[in-house]
Amino acid sequence: MNRKFPLGVFLFLALSLVLGACQPVTAPAGGSEAAAPAKLILATTTSTQDSGLLDVILPDFEQQANADVDVVAVGTGQALQLGTDCNADVVLVHARAREDEFMANSDGSRREDVMFNDFVILGPASDPAGIQGMTDAGAAMSMIAEAQAPFISRGDDSGTHTKEKSVWKAAGIDPVGDWYISAGQGMGAVLTMANEQQAYTLSDRATYLARTLEGTELEILVEGDPVLFNPYGVIVVNPEKCTNVNTDLATQFVDWIVSVPTQELIATFGQEEFGQSLFTPDSEAWRNK
């Protein structure tokens, strides 16, 4: 049966519906909106990015800290300069002498050991300089120079470039000539160039191993020399010189990356794909656990 409402009642109901629809929606009592993620600018070397390490470990920090990490992956020299110029909150690099200088200049307020791996000299299987199996990096570089075999240098003021220059210097060689190519590129790009040109190069082991998954034909020819040791450190940019630095979040990041749980993540990175860790944990907390 159809029921007819008086016109006044009908208008009252219609008006009530309209007014109800216009009322703002309020959050339940005691509720609150989630805080927007904080921003952290991490200036770091290309090896931590190109190896895939950051893709594996950073989500853990971002979740714990409710933060978004903006990664700027450049050479160590550029990463430290970003800190000096107050364009980063924290740096993760691998050139200890330059890190010590950064701290001595009060550009950083706190430095911690994080991890290490090693550098290796790579080249084509044909090995025209005949260095395969050598454990003296300086002697191997001397033979490359003597043979004038193509060598691709990072040439980008990175930690790897710094190490390469120190090996040439120790060997008493100033590498010049058409055989020596300064790329001015990151490690991934240099490995691609060296592979294409069947040239020698110096690389951190982690980035090289990651590139083997992409089909590089370069081989490890020289390894095991103590001078090829490659330690990484993390530094909070000094808030006294850079007032824009997110010091609290940068400190939280450092505490996180040197903690035992994160060091365990670093220890297992690469084991499934390569049967070995690409980086060895080395924080004080890890050494003392």
User: What is the structural class?
Assistant: alpha/beta
Based on the structure given, which CATH architecture of the largest domain is correct? 3-Layer(aba) Sandwich
CATH homologous superfamily annotation of the largest domain = Periplasmic binding protein-like II
Which class of the largest domain in CATH terms? Alpha Beta
CATH topology of the largest domain: D-Maltodextrin-Binding Protein, domain 2
What sort of overall outline do the alpha carbons produce when their principal axes are compared? globular
Count of alpha/pi helices: 13
Number of domains: 2
Q: If you had to describe this structure to a student in words, what would you say it looks like?
A:
There is one protein chain. By secondary structure, this protein is α/β, with parallel strands linked by helices. It has 2 domains: 38-117 and 231-287, Periplasmic binding protein-like II (D-Maltodextrin-Binding Protein, domain 2), CATH 3.40.190; 118-228, Periplasmic binding protein-like II (D-Maltodextrin-Binding Protein, domain 2, 3-Layer(aba) Sandwich). The protein is 42% helix and 21% strand. The protein contains 13 helices and 10 strands. Strands 1, 2, 3, 4, 7, 8, 9 and 10 form an 8-stranded mixed beta sheet that branches. It has a two-stranded parallel ribbon with strand order 5-6. α7 links the parallel β5 and β6. The longest helix is centred in the N-terminal third of the chain and has 16 residues, at 7-22. The protein starts with 6 loop residues before the first helix and ends with a helix. Mean pLDDT is 90; it is low at 1-31.
